[in-house]
From TrEMBL:
MF terms (GO), sorted A to Z: ATP binding; D-glucose binding; fructokinase activity; glucokinase activity
Alphabetic keyword roster: ATP-binding, Glycolysis, Kinase, Nucleotide-binding, Transferase
SUPFAM superfamilies the record matches: Actin-like ATPase domain
UniProt name for this protein: Phosphotransferase
Organism of this sequence: Aspergillus sclerotialis
Source domain of life: Eukaryota
Domain Hexokinase N-terminal as annotated: residue spans: 10-216
Pfam families according to UniProt: Hexokinase_1, Hexokinase_2
Keyword Iron carried by entry: no
Its EC number(s): 2.7.1.-
Gene3D superfamilies per UniProt: 3.30.420.40, 3.40.367.20
GO CC terms, sorted: cytosol; mitochondrion
Pathway: Carbohydrate degradation; glycolysis; D-glyceraldehyde 3-phosphate and glycerone phosphate from D-glucose: step 1/4
Root EC class: transferase
Length: 495
């Protein structure tokens, strides 16, 4: 049944359509930006060389530490790699205080992180810790340090396996004095200040960790091509031919690395794909969200795709309808006594969490019961009419579907540009993040969109295996710490 509310919801939803021809344009531009990013520095797609030149095969063994900074929580874990595609993991998780995420100093943040590592060691590896303290007190030089992989999920100009300077903050972090500094050195200094038996062995982006973890746990010989995150932020890392990474020829200062595989993992930082908006869709809600964000003009792809932003796009669309006199969204009428209190999240920037979208999208009930409950729980909106709920569902669906179809752009472009689908029978992709995990049919929409690309088609899409790679950032970081420790030991032998 038509009504002004539903008509307006449909009109707005249409602005989020992202048709096949646009996807193709996006893929062509992505491939262009990929090549530009491999050729020189300072491009919109960073294409960061990671110094990881090999993906694991599942036989790796040992006990490693990993920490993960990049979302709402800071995680510390120890990972025991069993060498048979399996591992055991012990972890602790703590929410990062808001005041440390923005406005504080890098010293405060890194000291906080080191303190969490200390607490973790005391609880889970106290014997090792005490033995180390004793050795220190006795002045012994023999050190038995834990090798730690540092998952730091922000754009970093990487200069070696455990060296990299922060390019810019993303996802709501903003600590100006850290920009340009080597984040591994910042963490190592804070660790040393507390006398912890820990060596920061590897710097890892979460997407690289996801790629490594997926490759370690996959029980067949197919190495993984790509690791991607669709969570608070979005980004991907993939295996590239060394001779295509032209900008490394002109790098001035970076550590030596093993070139024997002829490949290196590239951290694309695709959140910043097409910052100049030559192909990305751009509704007025996207524009407003960007203008009011703390980093306008950057991470433009991420702002249309990832969990941190979808709720805010929806909020702006809902608020627009709510304030529109000619449509009655969430307005009392003869048939509805809906109530929107002043402190409702609908009036506050970032007031809608992405989990709200997943719940609404999942709700197929006739009475839209889950949507009603979510409106009450998340936005304090009481007794919405059925039409209100229907309008919310229309908008949620449009925003979520656009995000998933956009997600197919970098995936499609990397599949095409590496030529992997032509060469191999099966191409493996590891993914992680709340959107792929919880948003209904997110992977399905990605697959539908890949099929629409002429270079991939239904045949190509069948060859793509996408699998969740849980705990990628922990296990992946451990795997890279292992490679780094091995390389270090090899170098010491030569000396
Ligand atoms: C942001 C970060 C990137 C990270 C992604 C997913 O885009 O810049 O480094 O991989 O979020 O967490």
């Amino acid at each position: 049944m038509s009504s002004p509310v539903l008509d307006e919801a449909a009109r707005i939803a249409q602005q989020f359509d992202y048709p096949a021809a646009e996807v193709q344009r996006g893929v062509a531009e992505y491939i262009r930006e990929m090549e530009e990013g491999l050729a020189k520095e300072g491009t919109t797609l960073s294409q960061i060389p990671t110094f990881v030149t090999e993906v694991p095969n599942g036989t790796e063994k040992g006990l490693y530490l990993a920490v993960d900074l990049g979302g709402t929580n800071f995680r510390v874990c120890s990972i025991d790699l069993h060498g048979d595609n399996t591992f055991s993991l012990t972890q602790s998780k703590i929410m990062i205080p808001r005041e440390l995420m923005a406005a504080g100093t890098s010293k405060d943040l890194f000291l906080f992180l080191a303190r969490q590592i200390e607490a973790f060691l005391r609880i889970h590896h106290n014997d090792h810790f005490e033995a180390h303290l004793l050795r220190c007190r006795e002045g012994s030089k023999r050190e038995e340090l834990f090798d730690l992989g540092f998952t730091f999920s922000f754009p970093v100009r990487q200069l070696g396996i455990n060296k990299g300077t922060l390019i810019r903050w993303t996802k709501g972090f903003d600590i100006p004095d850290a920009v340009g500094q080597d984040v591994c050195a910042l963490l190592q200094d804070a660790i040393n200040d507390l006398d912890l038996p820990v060596r920061v062995a590897a710097l890892v982006n979460d997407t690289v960790g996801t790629l490594m973890a997926r490759s370690y746990t996959s029980p067949d010989e197919h190495g993984t091509l790509l690791g991607a995150i669709f969570g608070t932020g979005t980004n991907g890392a993939y295996v590239e031919k060394l001779d295509k990474i032209k900008k490394m020829d002109s790098f001035d200062t970076y550590d030596d690395y093993d070139k024997s595989t002829g490949e290196m993992v590239i951290n694309a930082e695709w959140g910043s794909f097409d910052n100049h908006l030559s192909v990305l869709p751009n509704t007025k809600y996207d524009q407003e969200l960007d203008a009011d964000s703390n980093n306008p003009g950057v991470q433009m792809f991420e702002k249309r795709v990832s969990g941190m932003f979808l709720g805010e796009i929806l909020r702006r669309a809902l608020l627009d309808m709510h304030r529109n006199e000619s449509v009655n969204l969430f307005k009392p009428s003869e048939t509805s006594d809906v109530e929107v209190p002043e402190n409702s999240g609908i009036y506050k920037q970032w007031g809608i969490d992405t989990s709200f979208l997943s719940i609404v999208e999942k709700d197929k009930s006739a009475g839209r019961e889950q949507t009603k409950t979510a409106l009450s729980d998340h936005l304090r909106i009481q007794r919405p009419s059925d039409t209100d709920c229907q309008a919310v569902q229309i908008l949620v669906h449009a925003i979520g579907k656009r995000a998933a179809r956009l997600s197919a752009v970098p995936l499609g472009a990397i599949l095409i540009s590496t030529g992997k689908l032509k060469k191999d029978e099966l191409v493996d992709i590891g993914v992680d993040g709340s959107l792929v995990e919880f948003y209904p049919y997110f992977e399905g929409y990605i697959r539908d969109t890949l099929k629409e690309l002429p270079e991939i088609g239904a045949e190509g899409e069948k060859k793509v295996r996408i699998g969740i790679s849980k705990d990628g950032s922990g296990v992946g970081a451990a795997l890279i710490a292992l490679v780094a420790a091995k390389e270090d030991a090899a170098k010491e032998k030569v000396l």
